[in-house]
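Protein Record: Sequence and Backbone Structure Tokens
======================================================

Structure line: whole-number tokens from a learned vocabulary of local backbone shapes, matched to residues.

Purpose: to set a sequence beside its fold so the mapping can be learned.

___
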Amino acid sequence: MTTSAGQYYDLSFLVNFLSNPNISNEVKVTWGGGQIFDQAIPSNGFDYTPYSVLGLQASGGSTVLGLSFKTDADYLNLDDVSVTQSANVPLPGAVWLLGSGLLGLMGFRKKTFGPSRKG
């Protein structure tokens, strides 16, 4: 699929696995050659279960999306596969917490020790 290097994408899809105790069921998804999703899908009758993987970064102008299944095709249904551009992935909350903590320590140091004086 056509992608833009450095851009982030969100993948979503629906899976339905009809009950059969003699068949194992697993869905694997790869993005650009790397595995991003590997899950056994529980039996859910005739209802589809939504799955999504967010913040997939493209490394070039073309990215291969792969879907593979470990089941009998008569029992697994895949529908509504969608890949959309997303906003850049925000920095984790821990980074903001670390930054505010460091600013707080700098303020504490100035308040406790005051400005340095040279005589």
